TrEMBL record:
Domain Cation efflux protein transmembrane, chain residue ranges per copy: 8-202
GO terms of biological process kind: intracellular zinc ion homeostasis
Entry's Gene Ontology molecular function annotations: cadmium ion transmembrane transporter activity; ferrous iron transmembrane transporter activity; zinc efflux antiporter activity
UniProt protein name: Cation transporter
Keywords carried by this UniProt record: Membrane, Transmembrane, Transmembrane helix, Transport
Transmembrane domains' residue ranges: 7-29, 41-61, 73-94, 106-129, 149-166, 172-191
Residue span(s) of domain Cation efflux protein cytoplasmic: 211-285
Gene3D superfamilies: Cation efflux protein transmembrane domain (1.20.1510.10), Cation efflux protein, cytoplasmic domain (3.30.70.1350)
Family as reported in the entry's similarity comment: Belongs to the cation diffusion facilitator (CDF) transporter (TC 2.A.4) family.
Membrane topology term: Multi-pass membrane protein
Coiled coil: none
Length: 325
């Protein structure tokens, strides 16, 4: 089975088992705080189910209707997961507020805390596993699901401490207060996940990623590569699409231009951490480029080389040759 599918299927099966365990803990305690954790587990199951479907789509090859592949669905999956987390947090807060006004009896807290503690520990292990798998296979869906499970593990840990505190102090209204605090924490994490996914869906620039690409080009710069500008990057799941303009000597024939562009393609795919598809537009050099062009034996040079203009995110992403700046 494909590694990403295997990872998310494992997370889905474990989420179902943990959800059942948490509801058992709620039924034996009637604790609103434990119900909070159990309700979030429903979100875990729904999110993991959709994540599995989105990863199934991302493994499909490109087709006529999806020439860039199906990777964008991973951002939608993360958006859905963040939305579900936020909704769960809101429901938890409203339910806890109601129970503060109309409290109910709580029993078997130690037993319930033990069950929640075990489920939290399992979620922590699975969460780290998914995050590492997501980074390895460049899957925002796996990372999102892993971070969600880590959030669940943190709330479970806080819940165990709170339940033990309630049992020791016999201050039972703390049950509702703890639930509200956990609900706020859940909403915050849902917002962060949703914000990242919306950025991906809107093709928000990944500044760190663009900086890495520019640094690779600058470090391996060749004399015919006079300048690069209008560099843009879009991420589709694990794949990265880059388009840019490269200024080359105007007297190069098509074979030489193709050779230089192929060298750039091999460089990016050999050193970058993403599988990258490049669309490079070749621009001819102009006399104003001569002062920063390093071509040693140029028969059309009109002024001597003075200094190299270092490629940075400030100049490589602008849609103009460097001498226009």
């Amino acid at each position: 089975m494909q590694p990403k599918k295997k990872a998310i299927l494992l997370a889905l099966c474990i989420s179902i088992l943990l959800m059942l365990a948490k509801f058992v803990a709620y039924f034996i305690t009637q604790s609103n705080a434990i119900l909070t954790d159990a309700a979030e587990s429903i979100v875990n199951v729904l999110a993991s189910g959709f994540a599995f479907y989105s990863i199934y789509l991302t493994t499909m090859p490109k087709d006529e209707n999806h020439p860039y592949g199906h990777g964008k669905v991973e951002f939608f999956s993360a958006f859905l997961e963040g939305t579900l987390i936020t909704i769960a947090g809101l429901i938890i807060i409203f339910k806890s507020g109601y129970d503060l006004i109309y409290p109910k009896q709580i029993t078997n807290l130690f037993e319930g805390a033990a069950i929640i503690g075990v489920t939290g520990f399992v979620n922590m292990i699975v969460g780290y596993y998914l995050i590492n798998a997501g980074k390895k296979h460049r899957s925002i869906t796996l990372e999102a699901d892993g971070k969600h499970l880590l959030t669940d593990a943190v709330t479970s840990a806080g819940l165990v401490v709170g339940v033990i505190l309630i049992k020791l102090t016999e201050i039972y209204w703390l049950d509702g207060v703890i639930s509200i605090l956990l609900g706020i924490y859940i909403i915050y994490n849902g917002y962060k996940l949703t914000r990242r996914s919306v950025g991906g869906l809107m093709d928000e620039s990944n500044i760190d990623l663009v900086k890495d690409i520019i640094a690779i080009l600058q470090h391996n710069r060749k004399d015919p590569w006079i300048d690069v500008h209008n560099l843009r990057a879009q991420q589709y799941g694990a794949d990265l699409h880059i388009d840019c303009h490269f200024t080359l000597p105007y007297y190069f024939d098509l074979n030489q231009v193709h050779y230089e562009i192929s060298a750039i393609d091999k460089l990016i795919n050999g050193e970058a951490h993403h599988k990258t598809e490049l669309f490079i537009h070749a621009d001819p050099c102009l006399p104003a480029c001569c002062n920063y062009c390093k071509m040693k034996e140029c028969h059309v040079r009109q002024e001597p080389f003075r200094a190299e203009i270092e490629w940075t995110i400030e100049n490589a992403t602008k849609n103009q040759k460097h001498f226009d700046q």
